[in-house]
Amino acid sequence: MLVSITFDVEHDCPPYLTATRGMEEGLPKLLDLMAEKKVRATFFFTAEMARRFPELVKRVIDEGHELGSHNYNHERLDRLSRAEGERAIAKSLEVLREFGEVVSFRAPNLQFPSYYYDILAKNGILVDSSKATYKGYREGVRFFGDVLEVPASTTSSVIRLPWRVQKLIHPRLKEPKVYFAHPWEFVPMQREKIRWDCRFNTGDKAIELLGRLIDYYKSRNAKFLTMRDYYNEYQKLKRE
Q1: Measuring CA to CA, which residue among 132, 125, 140 is closest to residue 108?
Q2: Would you state the torsion angle of the CA atoms of residues 233, 237, 238, 240, taken in this order, to the nearest 10 degrees?
Q3: Does 177 have pLDDT greater than 80?
Q4: pLDDT tens across 75-134, in order?
Q5: Do the beta carbons of residue 43 and residue 227 sit within 8 Å?
Q6: Gap between the Cα atoms of 76 and 153, Å rounded
Q7: Cα angle at 30 between 98 and 99, to 5 degrees?
Q8: How far is it, in rounded angstroms, from Cα 68 to Cα 45?
Q9: What is the enclosing helix (H) or strand (E) of 224?
Q10: What is the pLDDT confidence band of residue 238, given thresholds at 50, 70 and 90?
């Protein structure tokens, strides 16, 4: 069974907030949890958060995780012209690659017009995870040109649902089971003026539930992959 834990590393709950409590308090807790569970994850950073919190990017890399791009400053690609979008992607990679290799990408809000696959390939990206099964994408893991698409399985709030509800959902997800969350979900958001689904069970409860999710898959002998790992795992698709 293939499972991936991924994080979209951005400022707090865009577009509602501009604070960075998730970076200051949430991301260190997530890295501690991943170290405790001995699981490698993919962290899709916006270049702006990498620029402001370089010590956290270095920690991600030093602890064996994958660094990916979440665009420059969380710009939605479907709201930019093709030229504007290409410039934002190239600019994000220029910043992030100062820290190390970056071959994976996830578009903010999972909004990704398909003509961007060629732009990603031109910029050295091998794996994209901007499509989402729960948003109607049905083509599974496949190559679009030279870029492998590995879709997200569920929305991030699923992993904050009460465990008695979650345990009914996880067995129904198709493989690979790709989860994502944001650092700001791991600090208390209950008093913020944001959507209800962005507030419930945030903070330490979210950390507890993510740990429980990892333990659930470990007990089933799941193999945890980073996005980069899929490129080798699915090479046979490229040859077909």
Answers
A1: 132
A2: 150
A3: yes
A4: 999 999 999 999 999 999 999 999 999 999 999 999 999 999 999 999 999 999 999 999
A5: no
A6: 20
A7: 5
A8: 6
A9: strand 223-224
A10: low
Q: Is the pLDDT of residue 239 over 60?
A: no
Cβ pair 30, 189 in contact under 8 A: no
DSSP string across 57-115: HHHHHHTTPEEEE--SSS--GGGS-HHHHHHHHHHHHHHHTTTS---EE--GGG---TT
- The answer on pLDDT for 236 being more than 70 is no
Using pLDDT thresholds of 50, 70 and 90, give the confidence band for residue 31: very high
> What are the b/e assignments for 100-137, b being 16+ CB within 10 Å?
eebbbbbbbbbebeeebbebbeebebbbbbbbbbeeee
H helix intervals, the chain: 21, 27-37, 47-52, 54-62, 82-96, 116-122, 163-169, 204-218, 227-233, 235-239
Which residue has tokens 């067995």? 171
Tokens of 64: 């064996």
- Residue 54 confidence (pLDDT) above 60: yes
Does the predicted model carry a pTM greater than 0.90? yes
Mean pLDDT of the 204-208 span: 96
Give the tokens for residue 16: 């509602």
